[in-house]
Amino acid sequence: MNTSVSYCLHKEPDEELLDSDRQFVTGQASQFDAHRHIAGTLEFVRKFDGNLRDPIEVRNFVNSFVRQRVNPMLRIFGFGRDRSRVFAGTQYPSDIDAGLALGRAIGAMVVAYAQADGSSTPFTGSFPPTPGLWSNANPTTPLAGTWQPWTLTSGSQFRPPAPPASDSPDFQAQIAIVKNFARTNASNHSAWFWQPAFITPWLDTVHQEIFENRLDTNPPRAARAYALETIAQHDATIACWDTKFAYLELRPSMADAAIVPLFANPGHPGFPSGHACASGASSGVMGYLFPNDAQNFSSQALDAGMSTFDAGIHTMFDVNQGLMLGGAVGQQVVSRAKTDGAQ
């Protein structure tokens, strides 16, 4: 199990998801920057020492440095790998020292960025019971929509129009669809598979694509894939939370007590589905990176979004709008990626 995920398991599931999402994106973005720095200076460096600034050691230290400062409990996992390349006989000690210094410098820059992203701002408001609106005494990270994104101008850049009011025929029709849905073993399996988080299944997809496309031999390209996918999810989650807390849509079981969700409602509003938002963004970025499998990514995003409908915690409208919002964020990330010189 990934250490950043396992550490967060003592938290509420949705708080875990947001914390893990932020940890992953800072780690992957810093690794990508490290590899770009290495690639940009490699020819010059090799004139003096063909092994200097070993990419694996830079990557390992950057990731360790960032994750330890975003999550101090991870410090116990951070070291021990820095000399493995020396023990293997593939690097000189001076190479490791240079790699660690470079990784430390890049990691510090990313940590400084993360520390100023607004995620430490305390929430002092409340969401008391209000007819027709979502409420919760312990909302999950209600200010996440105000965090600083990596590629968006703000969390509200692509905010969709308000969903139908709770007393409108359109909303009641959506609630009726949830109420009349006949669950099956297959729908329950999908709901439970995706319930812990959308992060790990999509990272597994990145792992598989890197393996199948032999990017394991191209560290900068592999790091770029990880960075773009996690940035897309991160920014889509910020955009999703901005929308959720702007409109405070009721969860289906809040609108109709006869609806019993497969598991407890998360501690945030219904519209739109977070799984759909994040997965729509991941699908867009992955389709850009690996176009031969674009249809598979679209199907995976739909499966992730529909899992929340299957569980009875979202309407179909929540899912469809979430996929659209995530898709817009994904295209924003792709537009930025097309200017990074990797084409």
Q: Could you tell me the CATH topology label of the largest domain.
A: Vanadium-containing Chloroperoxidase, domain 2
Number of strands: 0
Largest sheet: none
Q: For this structure, what is the CATH class of the largest domain?
A: Mainly Alpha
Quote the average pLDDT.
84
Task: Estimate the helix proportion, in percent.
Answer: 55-70%
Give, in order, the helices and strands: HHHHHHHHHHHHH
- General shape: globular
CA-based gyration radius: 21 Å
The helix tally amounts to: 13
Count of domain modules: 2
Distance between the termini: 34 Å
CATH architecture of the largest domain: Orthogonal Bundle
User: Roughly what fraction of the amino acids lie in strands?
Assistant: under 5%
Q: Decide which structural class fits the backbone.
A: mainly alpha
Poorly predicted runs: 1-13, 37-59, 73-79
Descriptive labels:
single chain, 343 residues, mainly alpha, Vanadium-containing Chloroperoxidase, domain 2, 2 domains, 13 helices, disordered N terminus
Explain what this protein looks like in three dimensions.
It is a single chain. Helix content is 60%, strand content 0%. With 343 residues, the chain is mainly alpha-helical. It has two domains: 113 residues, no CATH class; 194 residues, Orthogonal Bundle (Vanadium-containing Chloroperoxidase, domain 2). Helix 11 runs antiparallel to helix 12 and helix 12 runs antiparallel to helix 13. The longest helix is centred in the first third of the chain and has 34 residues.
